[in-house]
Design brief:
It contains ten helices and 13 strands. The chain folds into two domains: about 1-170, Thiolase/Chalcone synthase (Peroxisomal Thiolase, Chain A, domain 1), CATH 3.40.47; about 175-310, Peroxisomal Thiolase, Chain A, domain 1, CATH 3.40.47.10. The protein has helices at about 20, 30-35, 50-65, 90-95, 115-125, 150-155, 205-225, 245-250, 265, 275-285; strands spanning about 1-10, 15-20, 40-45, 75-80, 105, 130-140, 160-170, 175-180, 190, 200, 235-240, 295-300, 305-310. A hairpin with a 3-residue loop joins strand 12 (about 295-300) and strand 13 (about 305-310). The two termini are about 15 Å apart. The strands form four sheets. Strands 1-7-6-4-5 form a five-stranded mixed β-sheet, sandwiched between helices. The chain has a four-stranded mixed β-sheet with strand order 8-13-12-11, with helices on both faces. The structure holds acetyl coenzyme *A (ACO).
């Protein structure tokens, strides 16, 4: 069995906050934010919950796959901003979209969450334990920010993206491989909700260092393991944290500007939602076609990192 990527969707809350808007809340400016991060604006929730964002992205992915909701038998949500301690936000989404079959659960690997969730769904589909999966990344990062801390609050945004995966015998397409890593010795460089740091704390320089080296290394590893070369990658979609990180990795790997996808300018860092949001944007713009080779990679708090390699 192979997990074919057959649908996609995304949802951004309508409220847009520009760098200039932020400069009215904290001592910052577009002149500081844009050159260091590539971010111009972010979408932020007003009353929307994580389940609301995930619901909209999931429904669009189901429609794009040409499925009916009752065909979905697995829902995996990657999020660090669940709506409740329990039940899982995936079950809230299951209820909102009206799905009644199969099972739903959350995965928590922060900005690597979507990579982890896609890898998990792939294993269920390959094993014949599910047939049609919706994998969602949905985040309300704004809830985890200290809006008086200019070193972090300018970096993040809210949103959701989703992909529809279908198990098929056809081996000409599908998720080729996934590689996941974590190293808990670095759990203190990026965290939220600890006794010391109720809201997001980040050692930006350390995160930058790990992000550029580990995302590049795991991208090389997954291609080498599968006897593929960077020249064969159609779209390289790294976690959308920061334009400088994205450009650094693209340069290190010898990728062209056309291969490297960047949407961070308009979305900021939406954590687990960033990769499916970026994919949905290029897919809706008609830039993907059957046979394309996609390489996703992310690094997040934990630290966690990994890659997925997909043939469309
Ligand atoms: N506006 C204005 N000034 C600011 C701001 C701001 N928003 N934030 C920090 N500054 C000031 C600092 O106070 C400091 O001032 P000082 O020299 O008077 O003390 C100065 O700017 C430089 O601060 P640094 O933190 O040293 O800035 P740096 O050049 O390292 O850039 C940044 C910070 C952009 C966060 C960088 O470290 C980075 O890109 N890190 C990667 C982190 C990231 O992308 N994280 C996302 C989450 S993790 C992930 O998804 C992988």
């Amino acid at each position: 069995m192979h997990s074919h990527l057959v649908g996609h969707g995304s949802f951004l809350p309508p409220k847009i906050v520009t760098n200039d808007d932020l400069s009215k809340i904290v001592e910052t400016s577009d002149d500081w934010i844009f050159p260091r991060t590539g971010i111009k604006q972010r979408h932020l929730v007003e009353n929307e919950t994580t389940a609301d964002l995930g619901e909209q992205a999931a429904l669009k992915a189901i429609e794009s796959a040409g499925w009916t909701v009752d065909q979905v038998d697995l829902i995996i949500l990657a999020t660090s901003t669940p709506d409740m301690d329990f039940p899982s936000t995936a079950t809230l989404i299951q209820n909102k979209i009206g799905a009644t079959k199969g099972f739903a659960f959350d995965v928590q690997a922060v900005c690597s969450g979507f990579i982890y969730a896609l890898s998990t769904a792939d294993l269920y589909l390959r094993a014949g334990k599910a047939k049609r999966a919706i994998v969602i990344g949905a985040e309300r990062m704004s809830a985890l920010l200290d809006w008086t801390d200019r070193t972090t609050c300018v970096l993040f945004g809210d949103g959701a993206g989703a992909m529809a995966l279908e198990a098929k015998e056809d081996d000409s397409a599908g998720i080729i491989d996934s590689i996941l890593y974590s190293d808990g010795t670095f759990s203190d460089i990026l965290c939220a909700g600890s006794p010391e740091h109720a809201k997001t704390y980040m050692n930006g320089r350390e995160v930058f260092r790990h992000a550029v080296s580990k995302m590049a290394d795991v991208s090389k590893e997954i291609l080498e393991k599968n006897n593929l070369h960077f020249s064969e990658v159609t779209h390289f979609i790294p976690h959308q944290a920061n334009e400088r990180i994205i450009q650094h990795i693209g340069h290190d790997l010898g990728l062209s500007t056309e291969q490297v996808i960047s949407t961070v300018k308009n979305h900021a860092n939406t954590s687990a939602a960033s990769i499916p949001l970026a994919f949905d944007e290029i897919a809706c713009a008609g830039k993907v076609k059957k046979g394309d080779l996609l390489l996703f990679t992310a690094l997040g708090a934990g630290i966690t990192w990994g890659s997925n390699l997909i043939r469309l």
